[in-house]
Specification:
The chain is of the alpha/beta class. It folds into 2 domains: 65-79 and 347-443, Aspartate Aminotransferase, domain 1; 83-342, Type I PLP-dependent aspartate aminotransferase-like (Major domain) (Aspartate Aminotransferase, domain 2, 3-Layer(aba) Sandwich), CATH 3.40.640. The protein is 35% helix and 14% strand. The chain contains 13 helices and 15 strands. It has a 7-stranded mixed β-sheet, with helices on both faces. Strands 11-12-15-14 form a 4-stranded antiparallel β-sheet, covered by helices on one side. Strands 1-13 form a two-stranded parallel sheet. Helix 11 crosses helix 13. The chain is globular, with a radius of gyration of 25 Å.
Length: 453
């Protein structure tokens, strides 16, 4: 009884205070046509033994990930996770840790977050990183809000049309009731052309957002795009793939002012699409506008090294209405997993992971092209993901994905902009046998367009 929120007497007192006769009166504004006028049809309660049996039967219907070779990507990637990540991240003090409110009492968590920030800065070449965000989509929105605050400009925010559509949708939701227009720049060639940005950018543009590698897997001309943005005084926001930085130049070296990414590929499973881990880093001059938390290192009164929340400019703390953001937490456990993953791999391990992704993706692509299954949809270099255009003799991309499940493959992600385009991803986890088997299975569908399974 002690866990019931409030007693009938307390409920009556609250209703009297607001002038309502009963709880039903609280819902009078809801039209009767959309109210449920009958009790919920809930099955009788089960005993623990019966419930365990039922859940076991339902779980048995799932396909085990090991049964399917995953060539899907589009923001969620099947990277190998070293056993040390699960072994350490599953320790009780990590699993039960939440964002520290009494920071000085959470030295272990703060130390891990400090190390996480350090590694993200080393990875990106940026000056400072926060203790993580929710995921990449909200990270993009936070970056744009940060740019608006820094520049105080209200011109259109310029977004490369090759940005992940989910990130763009999240940004539009954040900005729905704010003044600046979100302007998506067309990218018919599969990347943002320099001339397009030159034509659209003005002295009132607060920022330019470009993903590299982009949603189609192609590499953008980031350094030149950043130069164009800076020439107009706009901030340049780069969305990056952390694994790609084993081979590609980091956002800091390419001229980014703010860098954001999805951190799922650093030691976390795909987990049905989330929740994930948002990475965010920026130049030191922008640190006061950085959302979320920033953990710092100092010494206590005895001279012993310790960690503190150095910056937490959010609305629940003293900043109130002056907060840089209303983000209320971070993905602490996923940040811990990313820290363990990066520490376990080290620079050489990350470089080898990226190299395998690159080589295996290009090997599969060459097999598909040589078998005349289709062609790469654009001419830009790619890393581990590529947009592949199927020939007219092939079923649609969605049909290929559906039919190849029974052959043991998650064949890719049907591109949202073209029925014949398949977004294919190859990570280091895919074996040569799986890659060649997938190419043969896809080739076997040639000439079966419209013939079903």
């Amino acid at each position: 009884m002690s866990y019931i929120a409030n007693t009938p007497g307390q409920q009556a007192a609250m209703l009297a205070k607001i002038g309502k006769k009963d709880i039903a009166a609280l819902f009078e504004s809801i039209p009767a046509s959309v109210r449920l006028d009958r009790p919920l049809r809930v099955s009788p309660a089960l005993s623990e033994m019966e419930l365990t049996s039922l859940v076991g039967k339902l779980a048995a219907k799932n396909r085990h990930p090991g049964e399917l070779a995953c060539f899907m990507g589009a923001g969620a990637y099947d990277h190998f996770i070293p056993a040390v990540v699960d072994a350490l991240a599953s320790r009780g003090e990590f699993v039960t840790a939440y964002t520290p409110y009494q920071a000085e009492a959470s030295q272990g968590s703060l130390q891990v977050f400090f190390e996480f920030q350090t590694m993200i800065c080393q990875l990106t070449g940026m000056d400072v990183a926060n203790a993580s965000l929710y995921e990449a989509g909200s990270g993009v929105a936070e970056a744009v809000m940060m740019a608006l605050s820094v520049t105080n400009r209200r011109g259109p925010v310029l977004i490369a049309g090759t940005l992940h559509p989910h990130y763009l949708a999240t940004l539009r939701t954040y900005m729905a009731n704010l003044e600046p227009e979100i302007r998506e720049l067309p990218c018919p060639a599969g990347h943002l052309e320099l001339s397009r940005l030159q034509a659209e950018i003005t002295d009132e543009t607060p920022c330019v957002v470009v993903q590299h590698p982009n949603f189609d897997g192609a590499l953008e001309e980031v350094a030149e795009l950043a130069r164009i943005a800076k020439a107009k005084g706009a901030l340049f926001v780069q969305v990056f793939d952390p694994v790609s930085l084993g081979l590609l130049k980091g956002p800091g070296e390419l001229g980014a002012d703010i860098a954001v990414a999805e951190g799922q590929g650093l030691g976390s499973p795909m987990s049905y699409g989330g929740p994930y881990l948002g990475l965010m880093a920026c130049r030191e001059s922008l640190v006061r506008k950085l959302p979320g938390r920033l953990v710092g290192q100092t010494v206590d009164r005895t001279g012993k090294r310790c960690w503190v929340l150095a910056l937490q400019t959010r609305e629940q703390h003293i900043r109130r209405e002056k907060a840089t953001s209303n983000i209320c937490t971070n993905q602490g456990l996923y940040a811990i997993r990313a820290s363990i993953h990066l520490a376990a791999l080290g620079p050489e391990g990350l470089r080898e992971t990226a190299r395998q992704c690159l080589d295996k993706a290009h090997h599969l692509c060459s097999l598909l092209v040589s078998n005349k299954v289709g062609e790469v949809a654009n001419s830009r270099p790619f890393f581990k993901e590529f947009r592949f255009r199927l020939t007219e003799a092939m079923p649609t991309a969605a049909e290929c994905v559906e039919r190849l499940v029974d052959h043991g493959f998650l064949a890719g992600f049907p591109h949202p902009h073209d029925l014949r385009d398949l977004l294919i991803t190859v990570t280091e986890s895919r074996t040569l046998e799986e890659i060649e088997g997938f190419a043969k299975a896809l080739l076997a569908l040639k000439g079966t367009a419209g013939k079903g399974g």
